[in-house]
Design a protein that fits this description.
heterodimer, A: about 375 residues, alpha/beta, D-Maltodextrin-Binding Protein, domain 2, seven-stranded mixed beta sheet, three-stranded parallel beta sheet, 18 helices, 12 strands, about 40% helix, B: about 300 residues, mainly alpha, MetI-like fold, two-stranded antiparallel sheet, about 0% strand, globular
């Protein structure tokens, strides 16, 4: 942000309170708040003259530079990342990706400069086979407690007894509906695809991601979300091609279109549903009765990470229970860590978007490694998009 | 007038016959030194990467994606699988180029021939002001303008109900004309500005109507500018993927989108390389044919743009 002339003028009490309200509502960043109120300058001056007030380095000495975090959109609390920088002196440089394939493609091409990244459960075995990630030194992650993790969600981070990735959070893939426009009360994937071709024609979005789009088309026929069977995939392709002219868009960035009222129904991940519902109560989340996807995202360190020590420090920091709880409040995905859950308010723990009913959960499947890398599925997705 | 003409020469629109003779008088060493930065640039950043792409296009997809060495024509034989994307691009890119040229021409004409001389440079500079904002931001803005709360809601107020613009080919066309207009205006402006006005006066003295002097003098003489602008726009549109992604919502699928998917999603690099080679070949052929046609029309065969 460029410095404006008024940033150097003293601020009135009224303006200060207005900026504070804006900060609380989240419409301005903390950095903006500190800059316009002059608190940044005040803190810096104070700290300079009183060295004992400087933030204490809670982590291993010798951390410096920046740490490159590669993750998904709307997936961290900016406050947490800023606090990490203040505590350690290491600036977090975050970049966001659209799909696991894209992350894999970048890592395969080499020299990414990433220190920490956030792979989904079904990719970890592929990364391990290709030698792209390193076994984690758990001694450097004192805040990670395997015993506190929900075992359902953490199996795929460990390969042959070696831990390659530690769980961040989990979630489901269902769909979001705008109940002001969608009154049919859909409950299944069959409903989803039928409404898309009927009354909701021109108002429905699917992910630009073969795993979820093809997977949920397979559910219409009662096949497995992970099917790699040629005939079953053929049926899914026929359905997708038939639905294509009725779709509003094929895009994994569906929040803007849902908020704008252009799209009324979209394939959706847990956290996007939480965020949409938080701002617009008419947005409701549906998990298809037939099933669909359940998943876990992990933290991992790529081989050759340039700032390896800072990578461990960042993962350890974000897994600290109270920090992790703040993360959950920001991104709206449930944590796998019971210690973090214990710190969350009751309304979060009872939110059915984050914690769906058991009978809905029991039909869900974890994606498989082969589902992501199957060339036929990639080709079907390409034919669907080009159709 | 003569000063303006030499400016146009420097801009590369007209290459005079005396240029070769002057270069001959210079020491070969100095000539080599002078062209070496550009030559090295082209060798390392164009020829070599293109060679890699060509080599990859005969390879195979490695089991987990990427490239595995092989020698097969399978990738080229599979090109029809992206036929629809080629077709989309080859329909929408020329159409958008044509519309942009039609919109840009009167603007350039006004700037070069009608606008007061002291405002001319300022007005021309204002044409490129949109470039000061990131392209991505401008496309996000268009998503809102063309979305149901934008233009369609205004049209609904005057009785045109339920119009969908965003995520259709029309949205991509609108975005293309908006986005590439600033590239089309300056070349046309330059060619109109160096137009010898005595020719128009002479035509008028000889009894030509304004329309026929425009059709027979102004338009043909400004065609090189139109050709340059069209090439700039056409080439960029052929490879674009952000515009169809944002304003086409993933439903308007260009070759650029197919390439992004092949390299980043399905990670079939050899097939992606084959599609790239095909794109380069199609673009090269289109440009050669187009330039011959346009330059044939304008009667200036010496103009070398390709």
């Amino acid at each position: 942000m460029t410095r404006k002339h008024w940033e150097n003028r003293p601020i009135s009490a009224k303006e200060f309170m207005r900026e504070l309200r804006r900060l609380e509502k989240g419409s301005v960043s903390r950095r903006h708040f500190l800059a316009v109120t002059g608190l940044a300058t005040a803190t810096a001056t104070l700290a300079g003259s009183m060295p004992w007030l400087k933030p204490r380095r809670a982590f291993a000495a010798g951390l410096s530079g920046t740490v490159n975090l590669t993750t998904w959109p709307n997936y961290h609390s900016q406050q947490n990342l800023d606090d990490f920088a203040a505590k350690t002196g290491v600036k977090v440089n975050m970049s966001v990706f659209g799909s696991n394939e894209e992350m894999l493609a970048k890592l395969q091409a080499g020299s990414t400069g990433w220190d920490v990244f956030v792979p989904t459960n079904y990719t970890i075995s592929t990364y391990q086979q290709l030698g792209l990630i390193e076994p984690l030194e758990l001694a450097k992650l004192p805040n990670y407690d395997a015993a506190a993790q929900d075992k359902r969600f953490t199996a795929e981070g460990t390969i042959n007894g070696t831990v390659y990735a530690v769980p961040k959070d989990w979630g489901t893939t269902g769909y979001v509906i705008n109940t002001k426009k969608v009154t049919q009360n859909p409950t299944s994937w069959k409903d989803f695809w039928e409404l898309a071709q009927g009354p909701l024609s021109g108002r429905v979005m699917v992910h630009d991601y073969q795993l979820t789009t093809i997977g949920n088309a397979l559910k219409q026929f009662g096949y497995s979300f992970n099917s790699n069977d040629e005939k079953e995939l053929g049926d899914a392709e026929k359905l997708l091609i038939a639905v294509k002219p009725h779709l509003f868009g094929i895009n994994s960035d569906y929040q803007p279109s849902m908020r704008n009222g252009d799209a009324w129904m979209s394939v959706c991940w847990t956290g996007d549903a939480t965020q949409l519902h938080r701002d617009l109560p008419e947005m409701q989340y549906v998990i298809g009765r037939e099933g669909g996807e359940i998943w876990t995202d992990y933290y991992a360190v790529p081989k050759g990470a340039p700032n390896r020590e800072a990578a461990y420090a960042l993962i350890d920091y974000l897994l600290t229970p109270d920090i992790n709880a703040k993360e959950v409040k920001a991104h709206g995905y449930p944590s796998t860590d019971q210690r973090a859950n214990a710190l969350l308010p009751k309304e979060t723990l009872e939110n059915p978007i984050l914690y769906p009913a058991k009978e809905l959960l029991s039909n869900l499947e974890f994606g498989a490694a082969q589902t992501l890398t199957n060339p036929l599925r990639a080709e079907i997705m390409a034919r669907f998009k080009a159709a | 007038m003569s000063r303006q003409r030499s400016l146009a020469t420097a801009a590369g629109t007209v290459a005079g016959p005396h240029e070769g003779a002057r270069a001959g008088g210079r020491s070969p060493l100095i000539t080599a030194l002078l062209i070496s930065p550009a030559a090295l640039f082209f060798i390392f950043l164009l020829i070599l990467p293109l060679a890699v792409v060509v080599i990859y296009s005969f390879g195979e997809r490695a089991p987990a994606g990427g490239y595995a060495p092989a020698f097969t024509f399978a990738n080229y034989l599979n090109l029809p699988a992206r036929g629809k994307a080629f077709l989309n691009t080859l329909t929408l890119a020329p159409l958008a180029t044509l519309i942009t040229a039609i919109v840009a021409y009167p603007m350039a004409y006004f700037l070069a021939l009608k606008a007061p001389a002291r405002w001319r440079l300022l007005l021309l500079a204002l044409c490129i002001v949109p470039f000061w904002t990131s392209q991505l931001l401008r496309y996000y803005a268009w998503m809102m303008i063309l979305g149901s709360r934008g233009i369609p809601s205004w049209l609904a107020a005057i009785g045109i109900e339920d119009l969908r613009i965003i995520n259709t080919p029309s949205a991509v066309l609108i975005g293309a004309v908006y986005g590439f207009l600033p590239l089309m205006v300056p070349p046309i402006y330059v060619s109109l500005e160096k137009l010898d006005r005595r020719l128009i006066e002479a035509a008028a003295d000889l009894g030509a109507t304004p329309l026929s002097s425009f059709m027979q003098i102004t338009l043909p003489m400004s065609l090189p500018g139109v050709a340059t602008g069209s090439m700039l726009v056409f080439i960029l549109l052929m490879g674009d993927y952000i515009l169809p992604q944002f304003l086409g919502g993933g439903k308007v699928f260009f070759i650029g989108n197919a390439l992004v998917d092949l390299f980043l999603q399905s990670r079939n690099w050899p097939f992606g390389a084959a599609v790239s080679v095909a794109l380069v070949a199609i673009m090269f052929a289109t440009i050669v044919v187009y330039m011959r046609f346009v330059l044939g029309l304008s009667g200036q065969r010496r103009v070398a743009l390709v």
